[in-house]
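Input record (one chain):
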Amino acid sequence: MRLRVEFTTEPFDLDEAPAHAVVAREVIRAAELDAVDVGPFGNTAEGGADQVLGTVDTLLRSVLASGATRVSLQVNVIEEDAK
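The corresponding structure, as predicted from the sequence alone:
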């Protein structure tokens, strides 16, 4: 099963990236996921279920420990190409 995760962390700071946002970028970029897109107002990545769910666990623990007060998260099952 493949999953897509989309998430944002708060609070926002338009002047410079808060520590929790930097940590989120580091976690998502270090993960073995596909189609990683890191942006100022949201982030997405895709991968196998085990990789995505493991990354979500690491992400939540890391950003909350780094000062995030809210994490908005959505996980969708995506269809794999027919083989």
